[in-house]
Amino acid sequence: MPFGLLKYGLNSEYPGQHHFNPATELKKHYDVVIIGAGGHGTGIAYHLAKYHGITNVAVLEKNYLGSGNTARNTAVIRSNYLTEEGVTFYRESVKLWQDLSNEFNYNVMMESRGQLTLAHSDAAIRSFRWRAEVNQHMGVRSELFDRQQIAEMVPNLNMSEDSRFPIMGGLWHADGATARHDAVAWGYAKGACERGVELHQLTEVQDIEVTSGRVTAVKTNRGRIECGCVVQAVAGASSVVAKMAGIPLPIHSYPLQALVTQPYKPILTPHVSSPHLHVYTHQTSRGEFVIGGGSDPYPLYNTRATLDQRETLTAAALELFPFLAQARMLRQWAGTTDMTPDYSPIMGLSPVENYYLDAGWGTWGFKATPICGKTMAELVATKKVPDIIKPFELERFYKYQQINEAGATAASH
Amino acid sequence: MKLLTCPLNGPRNISEFTYGGEYHPMPDHQQVSSREWVEHVFFHDNNAGMVIEWWCHSASSYWFLAERNTISDKVLRTFPADEIFKQRIDFNPVPEPTPTTEGES
Predict the structure, then answer these.
(1) How far apart are CA A170 and CA A158, in angstroms?
(2) What's the CA gap between A320 and A411, in Å, rounded?
(3) Quick one: pLDDT band at residue B101, thresholds 50, 70, 90?
(4) Is the CA virtual torsion A333, A337, A343, A345 positive or negative?
(5) Does the CB of B46 have a partner CB in chain A at under 8 Å?
(6) Looking at chain B, which residue has its C-alpha nearest residue A312?
(7) What pLDDT was estimated at residue A7?
(8) Do the beta carbons of residue B63 and residue B82 sit within 8 Å?
(9) Residues of A with Cβ-Cβ distance to B35 under 8 angstroms
């Protein structure tokens, strides 16, 4: 590797690497069609090809690779959830994240800088204590921090007792991390394409043919494809795509807006989140402060930015870090969050026999990318639902067995 | 500033309103199966396009309905709930079944 790098550096032309297969005609038939080439879709393709030897796979993307919520999320990785099912699932995901760059030999710039969630009320302290106990029991590093520990860890934080909602304590999660979101989709897609998976960008699924409870083909803007099975991994359009297969979902799609400031020198190490103020922020490796918050107040299939949300986000961020008052905002954007009633995903089997769901990713999809790739590929290859995702089945709503993670999301919605 | 026209209070800043979910015709709660009831409660059309949905003007606690496009965010019209709900819904529990002499087909 060092010699390759040296050779590349001395080359006068800097030859580009072709990471993905060039656009080809669609074949008539694929064993597996994956709708959506974000981190999840390409991750599933990668695991199918590498670990299950299934390579007659097409990943269809209506836009370009990683152009959906993979590009729009705020890149937070953590596992400090509340339920046994949630913590187990995200814990395994964080483990996979920690080795992801080695896994597909592509640098995802994983930085384990930890996450600090702030409590501004006695009720929040109680729930954080509960989460810390559950996390520790399940082998996730979480602990309760008092004001002094917080002030030492984040010296720039506004610890004033005269603010509207003084900080009373926090939940410190040492496993919290961030990574380069685009690189995740690129790394998975590269590894999948090298093993024979076909990535088809600008290929939009327009209809799904279902005959007697089985998917037989998908219709795209580039023609009809017959398929052995279909996996949908289209965060932000889960309801729209599932509807083509005749599957109703318990989802409402809301925009979630975020913004980023000009770069600063490194002054903030952990990710800092305040569910009470509906804001979370971290400093990227480029020095910018990424500021995200709760979803918009009503559903919309549109990624426009609003002044209302900009005011709400910046007001809350200034409450935590007053020095940001001087910061200039570089850009503001939105992603579409498919919110489920219990703030947990919908994964696994659907009422259509060979149609698999990877949906309902609300505001928690990015952190679950590697574990989704692994478990959904296992499901497709073996037709058996892995134990770790069994609780997230669509059927749970019919049994009133929701997995309530509403309180453990980074910003309440 | 985005405006929403409340049928009672006229055009107001949308921040004065609370979104209340999709409007679905309610199935007969005394006849409906458990699965259908679950779908009524938890599932949504989540349509990309025109929807009818509940809104509340928070300051006056006035609930009404709106027709809105969920792609363009344009509100076509807002109207009072009594356009749809003509009569009171009776939520009394199902009466105890009385023994019948003849079987039902």
Answers:
(1) 14
(2) 14
(3) low
(4) negative
(5) yes
(6) B15
(7) 83
(8) no
(9) 398
**Contact assessment for residue A219 and residue A206, using Cβ atoms and an 8 Å cutoff:** yes
CB neighbours of B73 closer than 8 A, spacing ≥ 6? A300, A302, A304, B2
Whether residue A114 contacts residue A174, with contact meaning beta carbons closer than 8 Å, is answered with yes
Residue A226 corresponds to which tokens in the numbers above? Answer: 């017959």
d(CA A56, CA A362): 30
β-pair partners for A260: A290, A331
Residue listed under structure tokens 């959904």: A376
Q: What angle do CA B39, B41, B45 make, to 5 degrees?
A: 60
CATH code that applies to domain B3-83: 3.30.2270.10
Tell how far CA A377 is from the center of its chain. 17
pLDDT for res B93? 73
Q: Is ipTM strictly over 0.90?
A: no
B104 pLDDT band, cuts 50/70/90, is: low
- Please, what are the domains in chain A? 26-74+181-250+342-408 (3.50.50.60), 112-176+252-339 (3.30.9.10)
CB pairs under 8 A between A and B: 55
Residues 6+ apart with CB under 8 A from A226: A28, A29, A30, A216, A217
Residue A358 to residue B6: CA distance in whole angstroms? 38
DSSP code for A64: S
Q: Do A250 and B70 touch (CB under 8 A)?
A: no
**Per-residue CA distances from A316 to A171, A271, A274, A291 (Å):** 19, 15, 9, 10
List the alpha helices (DSSP H) in A262-368: 307-320
Amino acid of residue B28: D
Q: Can you list the residues of chain A whose pLDDT is less than 50?
A: 413
| pLDDT averaged over every residue in chain B | 90
CA angle A212, A251, A92 (to 5 degrees): 95
